[in-house]
Amino acid sequence: MLIATFNINNVNKRLENLLAWLREAEPDVVCLQELKCDDRSFPAAVLRQEGYEAVWKGQKSWNGVAILARGAEPVLTRTALPGDPADHQARYIEAAVKGVLIGCLYAPNGNPQPGPKFDYKLAWLARLRRHATALRRQDVPLVLAGDYNVAPTEIDVYPTKSYEDNALVQPESREAFRRLVGRSWIDAIRVLHPGQRIYTFWDYRRYRWERDAGLRLDHLLLTPNLGDRLAAAGVEREARGREGASDHAPAWIRLR
């Protein structure tokens, strides 16, 4: 079972990029972020022609998340992260696919910091941790995949000082991610590639893609009951180098 997460950065604008990657990689489950379209504009019919059924939560011009399943119907369980009824940003969706519960998330960026956007980021990550803990205690096989907008350690950022003031690398952001993972969750890419510089995001500016000046912001966290099934994990780096590409590349895991 191949499960991927991909911040597509406007699903309609980059639909051809997405379709090309789907045809090549043939993932079984895909978590998409930054749809940047409302619910009516999501390209469900086109994706269905490619063999993917989908559930989604859109938001015009901003945010938006979706879960695609190849040859299966995702069973929708949630379209928002619990804990704040006043939060209407489309950042979380959850569905069961082939016996695995999939949580697709797009965490807040948090810039500029300090300030209200950074406070919202930290509060959102705290809500995610509480919800993840509640799900884990149900002992269901669960994957939390998406753009966490956190580079957890120094090895997850290319050697630079240019991000020192960025919300993605602040001690509070990293501590929130560390508390989320705790001793129970499996950070799939880091577990299988300890000590290796692996990036999922390259800013469009300053030739960062060409210089491989990236960050690892997109993560797939697994419950312990999937640990023995984790066979491989990686990043489809080549997707970032295509014309008109998103500034993220798909990250993926393969489960036995």
TrEMBL record:
PROSITE patterns: AP_NUCLEASE_F1_1, AP_NUCLEASE_F1_4
InterPro entries, alphabetized: AP_endonuc_1, AP_endonuclease_F1_BS, Endo/exonu/phosph_ase_sf, Endo/exonuclease/phosphatase, ExoIII-like
Site entry (Important for catalytic activity), positions: 218
Active site: 106, 147, 248
Cofactor(s) needed for function: Mg(2+); Mn(2+)
Sites marked Transition state stabilizer: 149
Keyword flag Protein biosynthesis: no
UniProt-listed Enzyme Commission number(s): 3.1.11.2
Keyword Nucleus belongs to the record: no
Swiss-Prot/TrEMBL GO biological process terms: DNA repair
Pfam family, one: Exo_endo_phos
Keywords of the record: Hydrolase, Magnesium, Manganese, Metal-binding
Enzyme class, first EC level, given as a word: hydrolase
Domain Endonuclease/exonuclease/phosphatase: 4-248
Site (Interaction with DNA substrate): 248
Family statement drawn from the similarity comment of this UniProt entry: Belongs to the DNA repair enzymes AP/ExoA family.
Annotated protein name in UniProt: Exodeoxyribonuclease III
Organism this protein belongs to: Pseudaminobacter soli
